């Protein structure tokens, strides 16, 4: 069975790191490994699928269909998204909250259960790997204007708005639960969250040696 893309990319990164340590090469070898792998071919073939839909449903279907069935990644251009993800988040007043069905415990599971199964952990005394560039932005901008998006898109409930002693909501960061998806690094409307690599082998699938 073919490994998942991220797992395989992680293996290539580990091989590159081993080559750096044992042969003194540079981490540029990672890009060489990646370019020669099946991941590169698959990602190149599908690079235009999503941005094609920025032009509308029908043009998106047409371009994606041509790319998939005819050109198979050989289109001589790469479509771009018009703006970065963090600029694509609208203010909350333009939208109606979505009521999602509750997890049924069969096909869908609540966050604590999923988190437990991911075996995520970090050493308790390591430096914080999630930092706020400006600690006032969550309460002054993200919560009033965007309804606290970090408490919604984070799959591990790392970001929670909890009331302080005066009853005012303050952002609490439970970095221990982080799954390293990097959504917060990409999606925060003001790019205020700085994601840094955690210490050691902490994260999902963490094992104590
Ligand atoms: S990287 Fe992902 S899991 Fe970790 S805090 Fe950010 S959004 Fe949450």
TrEMBL record:
Keyword list, A-Z: Electron transport, FAD, Flavoprotein, Iron, Iron-sulfur, Membrane, Metal-binding, Mitochondrion, Mitochondrion inner membrane, Oxidoreductase, Transit peptide, Transport, Ubiquinone
Cofactor note: Binds 1 [4Fe-4S] cluster.
UniProt-annotated location(s): Mitochondrion inner membrane
The enzyme's E.C. designation: 1.5.5.1
Gene3D superfamilies found in the cross-reference section: 3.30.70.20, 3.30.9.90
Domain of life: Eukaryota
Keyword field contains Lyase: no
InterPro entries: ETF-QO (IPR040156), ETF-QO/FixX_C (IPR007859), FAD/NAD-bd_sf (IPR036188)
TM helices/strands, residue ranges: none
Record-annotated ETF-QO/FixX C-terminal domain positions: 105-207
Principal localisation: mitochondrion
GO molecular function, one term: metal ion binding
Catalytic activity: a ubiquinone + reduced [electron-transfer flavoprotein] = a ubiquinol + oxidized [electron-transfer flavoprotein] + H(+)
A Pfam family annotated for this UniProt entry: Fer4_ETF_QO
SUPFAM superfamilies the record matches: 4Fe-4S ferredoxins, FAD/NAD(P)-binding domain
Enzyme class: oxidoreductase
Cofactor(s) the record lists: FAD; [4Fe-4S] cluster
Keyword GTP-binding part of the UniProt annotation: no
Any Gene Ontology CC annotation: mitochondrial inner membrane
Family, per entry: Belongs to the ETF-QO/FixC family.
Function: Accepts electrons from ETF and reduces ubiquinone.
Protein's name in the database: Electron transfer flavoprotein-ubiquinone oxidoreductase
Species for this entry: Eucalyptus grandis (Flooded gum)
């Amino acid at each position: 069975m073919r490994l998942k893309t991220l797992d395989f990319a992680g293996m290539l990164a580990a091989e590159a790191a081993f080559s750096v340590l044992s042969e003194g090469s540079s981490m540029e070898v990672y890009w060489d490994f990646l370019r020669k792998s099946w991941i590169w071919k698959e990602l190149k073939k599908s690079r235009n699928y999503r941005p094609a839909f920025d032009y509308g449903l029908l043009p998106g279907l047409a371009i994606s269909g041509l790319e998939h069935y005819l050109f198979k990644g050989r289109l001589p251009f790469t479509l771009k998204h018009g703006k970065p993800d963090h600029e694509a988040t609208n203010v909350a007043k333009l939208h109606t909250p979505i009521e999602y069905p509750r997890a049924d415990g069969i096909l869908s599971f609540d966050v604590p259960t999923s988190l437990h199964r991911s075996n995520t952990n970090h050493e308790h005394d390591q430096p914080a790997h999630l930092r706020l560039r400006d600690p006032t932005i969550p309460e002054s901008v993200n919560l009033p204007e965007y309804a606290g998006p970090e408490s919604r898109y984070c799959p591990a409930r790392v970001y929670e708005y909890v009331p302080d002693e005066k009853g005012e909501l303050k952002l609490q960061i439970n970095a221990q639960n982080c799954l390293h998806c990097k959504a917060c690094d990409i999606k925060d409307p003001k790019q205020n969250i700085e994601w840094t690599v955690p210490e050691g082998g902490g994260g999902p699938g963490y094992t104590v040696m």
